[in-house]
Amino acid sequence: MLEIKDLHKRFGDVVALDGVSLSAKPGEVVGFVGANGAGKTTTMRIAMGVLASDSGEIVYNGTPLGSKQRQRFGYMPSERGLYPKMKVGEQIAYFGELHGLDKAAAKRSTADLLEQLNLTDRIGDNVQDLSLGNQQRVQLAVSLVHDPEALILDEPFSGLDPIAVDVMGTALKDRAAAGAPVIFSSHQLDLIERLCDSVVIIGAGKIIAAGGVEDLKAREVKELRIRVETIEDLTDALPGTVTRDGDDYLVEDGDSQEALRIAAAAGRVTHFAYDQPTIAEIFREAVTR
Fold first, then answer.
1. DSSP state of 95
2. 3-state secondary structure 202-252
3. The dihedral of CA 153, 178, 73, 112: what is its sign?
4. Which of 5, 92, 110, 245 is the most buried (most CB within 10 A)?
5. What is the CATH number of domain 2-217?
6. Given this model, what pLDDT does residue 163 score?
């Protein structure tokens, strides 16, 4: 289990992090969401030892995270850290060896990742000759080549086309299925909703919302949507505050069982469920509170 506990960080007069805490259990994919400058990258850099915090700690499996443990992590920075004139296959294998693999193991892992990420035919190309999306795939391969115990990825989906997004998403889910805790940041909130088990929203250096994806969506439910086949207008008959959305009735602060009884008496009920907001809607509401 990877735990980030009560991080504080200032850059001069600017408070970058103000008590940031989040965690990822084995096999859990955590989406780290926030506007530009909210503190996501600073948090990840501290977790990987790139920056030092003013206070707080990073704990892995119950003990403070050290450099030897970090070597077993997979890290993908927001800025590409690749050698542009080095061939794709050689580069991935080289990073595998830096993480402690022998040459044969690094070569095998490289071949497997190139196939998984649909890059096998680019193995001999220089990185600088690849599209930005394929460079991003190589960057992910570099973070995965040593079979990491945990993943910390900063904007891994940036600049990817839909096919590449699916490929990378599958790679992350496979790594989580193998038991690795995964934390990644993204501005693509539809991906966060689709890929993540839980979400952490940060704003101005503070955690402003956190929880399981389905729990957060259920927590923010406000309106009951009812669709019923009837020519009768039920606006005044239904309990609570009632508005119309086309043929649907939206009921807020009303007794759901009473609403169902009234709707069923008026005609055939074809839809009766609480509206769940998207993660994007939850994010917008959280950051504007």
1. H
2. EECCEEEEEEEHHHHHHHCCCEEEEEEECCCCCCCCCCCEEEEECCEEEEE
3. negative
4. 92
5. 3.40.50.300
6. 86
Q: What is the mean pLDDT of residues 208-227?
A: 85
- Contact at 8 Å (CB) between 40 and 32? yes
Q: Tell me 275's DSSP state.
A: P
Decide the pairing of beta strands 55-60 and 2-11. Answer: antiparallel
Percent of the chain as helix, strand, coil, to the nearest 5: 35, 30, 35
Cα 212-78-158 angle, rounded to 5 deg: 70
Distance CA 73, CA 99 (A): 9
pLDDT tens-digit profile of 31-61? 999 999 999 999 999 999 999 999 999 999 9
Cα distance between residue 135 and residue 102, in whole Å: 24
DSSP code of residue 83: -
Q: By the 8 A CB rule, do 44 and 152 touch?
A: yes
Q: CA of 61: how far to CAs of 2, 66, 141, 142, 219, in Å?
A: 7, 12, 25, 24, 30
The whole-angstrom separation of Cα 128 and Cα 76 is: 18
Cβ neighbors of 83 (< 8 A, separation 6 or more) are: 91, 127
Q: For residues 194 and 31, is the Cβ–Cβ distance under 8 A?
A: no
Domain parsing of the chain, residue ranges: 2-217, 220-288
